[in-house]
Specification:
This protein has 410 residues and is mostly helical. It contains 13 helices and no strands.
Length: 410
């Protein structure tokens, strides 16, 4: 019996070791098959292949998309001093709603289905790609990561602004020759509705703070008129003018939103440009030129609006606008350069494009819903203007519908 008792553990560990070896070999085999660069078979568009015509169309695409991107991002930046293009005007508000619909449809109708199709392609090994919905998971992780970046960015800029305020206050006090103004003290144990520990107010907190003000005033038209007439009342959190507070919070949000939105747009613009650049089929490139020009113009408009509202310095705003405008054309140029040895039908290309498409979809969906649509459509300005509500909702659905309809051709 003693010999058998010693033998059983050895047999058990032997079986476990064998299973572990088989599992590791299967994982390595799946990775190897997924990263293969050999073609997975001919596509339906091989019959439409024409290298010379495709090359000409790529140059046309670079020029058209560059002009569309520059025009879209420049209109809010250059026209912000014009009366009908000011960032606080109704026309800009409605146009931004249209652009938000375009971005939302890009994530839901274009990027996410494309990523899902690539990651579920029959060319990829069944394990693990057909055993788990990776496309949805990658989009979800990207959306949650964007939330974290949004939150951390907002906290960083709030603390930076608080430090700047404190230093300015010290300078003013030192210049007043001992005359110290009376400042209302804030109870450290009392927090504003939506405020976090340390005094910061995060993304949801800003909306919650706005909701708190809605319930602290009369409702309806009287609420809007009353809030415009009298801002001098105190809310007990140590600031003399609540309007200045809201403007500062809004400025911080626009700074963060513009930077995160540009990150999301650039991430998928590169993939889109590469996909067009490596294609040698005029049947694929022609509809993409129109679709991407439309898409690039309104994405640029939304980004340009956020940059304009964030009130960056001229150099910073110009660099952000230029970086956005050249990303897709640069992707097309890179794709054209590597098209001779890059195989877009290989398992490796499918995995890379699928993962990036899903990540881009998650970022764009989050940004469209949270930082563009929710931020504007839940604002006091929208709530107090019935005509603007109707116009903005119409433009939102129109933008989403038109961008979705482009999926028929591209």
């Amino acid at each position: 019996m003693g010999f058998l008792e010693e033998l059983f553990p050895m047999l058990y560990f032997g079986r476990m070791k064998g299973k572990t070896r088989i599992f590791s070999e299967s994982v390595l085999q799946a990775i190897s098959q997924s990263m293969a660069t050999t073609s997975c078979g001919e596509t339906d568009l091989e019959n439409c292949r024409d290298d010379s015509a495709a090359q000409i169309l790529k140059f046309v695409a670079i020029a058209a998309i560059l002009v569309a991107g520059v025009s879209g991002v420049a209109i809010p930046l250059v026209g912000k001093k014009r009366r009908f293009l000011r960032t606080d005007g109704n026309i800009f508000f409605a146009a931004k709603a249209f652009a938000a619909g375009v971005i939302l449809a890009t994530g839901f109708v274009h990027m996410l289905p494309d990523g899902s199709s690539a990651l579920s392609d029959s060319c990829l090994p069944k394990y693990p790609w057909s055993k788990f919905p990776f496309s949805g998971m990658f989009a979800m992780v990207a959306a949650l990561a964007t939330l974290v970046v949004d939150f951390v960015g907002t906290q960083y800029y709030e603390r930076k602004q608080d430090r700047a305020k404190a230093s300015e206050a010290q300078v003013r006090l030192s210049e007043q020759d001992g005359i110290v103004p009376l400042i209302e003290a804030k109870d450290p144990n009392v927090k504003v509705f939506g405020e976090e520990e340390g005094g910061g107010m995060h993304i949801v907190g800003i909306h919650a703070h706005a909701a708190h003000h809605r319930h602290s005033h009369p409702h309806g038209e009287e609420s809007c008129d009353g809030h415009r007439r009298d801002h001098g009342h105190s809310h007990g959190f140590g600031f003399e003018d609540d309007d200045d507070d809201d403007e500062e919070d809004g400025g911080i949000r626009h700074v963060v939103v513009s930077q995160v939105l540009e990150l999301g747009i650039i991430s998928h613009s590169v993939i889109i440009g590469l996909s067009l650049g490596v294609s040698q089929s005029p049947c694929t490139i022609r509809p993409l030129i129109a679709a991407l020009s439309f898409h690039q113009f309104f994405e640029g408009f939304a980004l340009g609006g956020c940059i304009s509202q964030a009130q960056f310095k001229t150099l910073s705003a110009t660099l952000m606008a230029c970086f956005f405008a050249i990303t897709t054309p640069a992707g097309i140029a890179i794709g054209t350069a590597i098209s001779s040895f890059y195989n877009p039908d290989s398992p490796r290309a499918l995995v890379i494009e699928g993962v990036f498409d899903c990540i881009s979809a998650g970022i764009l969906i989050y940004m469209a819903l949270v930082d563009l649509i929710a931020a504007d459509f839940l604002s006091k300005r929208m709530r107090c203007n019935a005509k603007l509500q109707v116009l903005s909702y119409f433009m939102l659905f129109l933008g989403a519908g038109l961008m979705s309809s482009l999926a028929i051709w591209a």
